[in-house]
C-alpha cells in the first residue's frame, strides 16, 4: 500500500538504487547487513551521535504514533477541531473578526503558486510577489501618513519592540528611558518588558491620555492609537514633547481606523507600527499575521526587516527587488540592531489584496460601518443605564460595572456565545468589527440589562459621533490605480493570476536553496488551516473554547521533544530568529537564576548565519567569534583558546548542526563537552534539522537548547518569505526560562513544565493557525517516515555532489567524503578560468527553468545546493544537466567562442521580448539563449524582466507603487 511518506519522498526505491550505485554503494544490501542507504548514513553521520533505526516507532514507548493515512490524519484533525468552539469574539486587543474575500482565499492562501514561493532573493523570477509587497508598502505608508513602509513585520508587539529599538539608535538622546502608553495592548507591554530588560532599557509607563507628564529625559515614546481600552485622543502634544526631549515618537495605529481618523504621520509620529490582521487575515488563534512598520523621511535606512524597492532591468524598464541589500542588511552580526531576517509575506500579500479589492472607498465604508455599530452599541448601553468609560472611540468601548466584570463576561459567553474582555474586576471591554451583526449588538445589551426586544433600523455615517471631530481624516490615500482597478471578482482573479505567473515557486520546479529546505508542502497538510474551528479562534479565547487547539499543541510539543532529544518545547516564537532569541534568553535567565550575571559571552563560529550573532546581541550578550578550519568545521584549538580566555564569563556557544557548510562535524560531542566543562550552555541552531531526524538528536549530542524551523524541516510553506515558526526546545534545567505569556489559556506544557521566560510573540502560542500543518506532517510520516525523509535528503545531496564534482569542486565534505543534506559548489575557479561569476550562473539557471541555489553563503563565490527529500530523480537530473551545460557555456567563453561581454551567461536571464524585439546582433543564437535544452520547448518559464540593476535601486530609493507612466 502506498503511504503518505511514499508520496512525500521524491526518489523511488529504484531511483535510490541508481543514486546509491553512483556513490559506489553496494545495492545488494550485503554491506554489514545494512541497507545501502543506511550504509550511506553511517558514512555521513559521526558514529558518536548516530542513532540506529527505532524499534519503538508507533509503540507505547514512542510518543509519535504509527504513520496515519491522509484520510485518517484529516479525520483526527476534524476531531481536534470539533473540540474548539467558534464563539463570537468581541475581545479586540489587536485581533478582530474579518471577512476574507473568497477570491483572495482561493487564489492566494490556498494557491501553491503563492504559498510555496521563497524569499525573493532572485528578483527576476519574483516580480509577482514583489509587486504585491510594493502594494502592501504603499498601503501602509499612505494610511499611516509616513514616507516609507517595510514589507511586513512578524506581529504588532514585535513591531513595537522594533520601533523602540529604532528610536534608541536614531535618537540623539543618551537616555535609556522609553516612555510607554499605559493604555497599550497587554501583550505589547509584556513583550516590551521582556526585550527591554535584556538591553538595559528602562520602561516608564505613562497615562498619556490623562495628561500625565513625560519623564524629563527619554529616547522615545510609544502611544497606542486608539488605545487598548478603545479610547481615542489626539497625541500630538505627546509627540511634540518627545521631540523636544530629543526622542522619537512611535505610534501603534489601527489601519482600519486610519481610513477615518488622522494619520500618525500627520500628528507628528516618526514611526508607525501595528498589524494588518483585520485586512482579511483570519485570527487563527493568534497568527500568522503581517505586522507593519512605517517611518518618516530620513529613517529609511534604519528600517529592520525587508524593504522592497523599484529599480530597472538591463533594458531600463522598471523592476522590483529587495532594497538596501535587505537580505542581510540588518544582520550585522555582533553590530546588529535587529535579528529579524524575514517577513510575513503570504499574509502581507493577503492584506494588500484586501485593500486592492476594496479600494479606499470600500475600506472607508467598512470602517464607517464598524464605527457606526460601536456608536450604536454605546447608545443602547447608555439607554440601559450602563456607565461608558470613554466618550470617544472607534470600535472598542469599555463599560464600568463595579465588581461584576467577570460575571457579565460569563453571561455573554454562556448565554450568547459572545466573548468580551475583562479589563479588570470593574471594567468590561467590547470590540466591534466588520463581521459584527446588529443582532449581536442587541445580545450584548441584553447581558447588561438592555431591552429584550428591539426594532433594527438603518444607521450610517451620522452614527460616527464617537469619533473626535478634530481627528477626522481630511487627506486622501490609496490613490494609485492599482487600488481602483480590480473591483470585480473577474478582474481580481486575473490580477492575482498575472502576478503568480511572473513568479517561480515549487509548483514550477525545484528550488534547491541551501539552508532553506524547500520541501513539499502537501495539500493534505494545508487542508485544515482554513477550517473555521482553527481559523476563527481569538488568541485570548477562554480555555473552554480551545481544548482542541491545546491538545494539538501539547501533542506537537511532545513529538518535537522526542525527535530532538529535549524535555520541553515552546511553540510561541513565530520565526526562526525569534526562536534563537528565546533560547538565548533562556540561557541568560538560567545563569541569572544561579547568580551568574557575569556570564555574558556567547561564542559563535565565523561561518554562522548572521541571525545567530544578532540574536545574541539582543539577548544582552557579547559575541566572540570562533574560527573555522579549512574543512569548514569549528576550529577546536581556537575554541579551546576562546573558552580559556573567557572561562569566567562564558554564557553559551551557538553552533549549527550539521554545520553551515553542509557537513556533520565529527567532533561535535567534544565541542559541547568543552563548553559544559567551562560552565557554559550549548545552543544548537536547528536550521539543518532535516539532515538529522531519526539519525541523531540535538539533546544527545550536547545541546541544551535549540530552535526548530517548522517552515523548513516540518513542512510549513515559506509563503514567499513568511510565515515561519521557530519553536524553542530545551533540556529540563532551561525549561522554566522558555517563553511565557500573561494571557495564555493554561500554564502547563508537555511534560508538566511551566514556563516563565517572558513574551517573545504577541500571541500565547505564536502562529498557532498553521500548526496543523506540522502536526499533519509528523502524524502522516510517523517516526519511520521522518527517518526515511532524512536519508533521502542526504542521498540526494550526495548524489548531486558526486555528479557535479568533476565540473565544480565540492567545497566541504566529511571524513568519508560525504556531505549532509546540502553541498557547496565552489564557483571561484570557474570565475578565475572564464570570467563567469556566480551571479551569471544563477541568472542563467533561470533560462534553464530553475531557481538558483543559495548564492555566496556561507562562502562568497559559491552555490549551496539543497535538493530536499521531495524532489524526484528526474528533476535532480534536470538540475545536474543544467549545471553541466552552464559549465560548458562558461568554458566556451574562455575558449573564445563567445565574447566575454556578449554570451548567454552575462546577458541572462532572457525575456521573450528581448529575443523577438528588433534585430538579433549577438554572438549566440536566439535558440541558444531561450532553449539550451530541448525539453524547455514544451513548457518554458519566461522571466518577466531582464537582469536587475541592484545598485541603481539603492541610489534611487523608491519603495512605493511607481506611476503607471513608468511602465509605458
UniProtKB/TrEMBL annotation:
Catalytic activity: N(6)-[(R)-lipoyl]-L-lysyl-[glycine-cleavage complex H protein] + glycine + H(+) = N(6)-[(R)-S(8)-aminomethyldihydrolipoyl]-L-lysyl-[glycine-cleavage complex H protein] + CO2
Glycine dehydrogenase C-terminal domain segment(s): 789-910
Known cofactor(s): pyridoxal 5'-phosphate
Domain Glycine cleavage system P-protein N-terminal: 6-448, 483-739
Annotated GO MF terms: glycine dehydrogenase (decarboxylating) activity
Enzyme kind, highest EC tier: oxidoreductase
N6-(pyridoxal phosphate)lysine PTM sites in chain numbering: 712
Pfam family of the protein (one): GDC-P
Keyword Glycoprotein: no
EC number per UniProt: 1.4.4.2
Keywords annotated in UniProt: Oxidoreductase, Pyridoxal phosphate
Lineage top rank: taxon: Bacteria
SUPFAM superfamilies: PLP-dependent transferases
Function: The glycine cleavage system catalyzes the degradation of glycine. The P protein binds the alpha-amino group of glycine through its pyridoxal phosphate cofactor; CO(2) is released and the remaining methylamine moiety is then transferred to the lipoamide cofactor of the H protein.
HAMAP family xref list: GcvP
Assembly: The glycine cleavage system is composed of four proteins: P, T, L and H.
The family this protein is said to belong to: Belongs to the GcvP family.
Stated name of the protein: Glycine dehydrogenase (decarboxylating)
Species of the source: Microbacterium aurugineum
Gene that produces this protein: gcvP
